Request: fold
Amino acid sequence: QVQLVESGGGLVQAGGSLRLSCVASGSIFSRCAMGWFRQAPGKERELVAALSRSGSSTYFSDFAKGRFTISRDNAKNTVYLQMNSLQPEDTAVYYCAADSTFYNSRIYYTADDYDYWGQGTQVTVSS
Reply:
């Protein structure tokens, strides 16, 4: 079992930055591929970025490319999402997700691929 707790959300002005953190409990974090998703009111949950269990492979949705980075620190059981140049359309609840996998470099793209979810952290970007 893995429990995920996100933090770092908040209110920021357009053009600002936030770093989200997701701390995982349990001993299998290093065997998990990780993902950050977001869900805005009235919209479906969408993938923001994903990271393989080895950290060697990453994926960013088009809206995140060039602005967001994803990283992990296995010693701290933590995955990060650094978000720069935030815009009002980035306003959403951001969720951390984990999938235990045998594959070091595999990326997972859909919510159904992930076994474990955090409770979410609100990000609000004002114009």
Notes: The radius of gyration is 14 Å. The chain is about 0% helix and 50% strand. The mean pLDDT is 96. The longest strand covers residues 92-100.
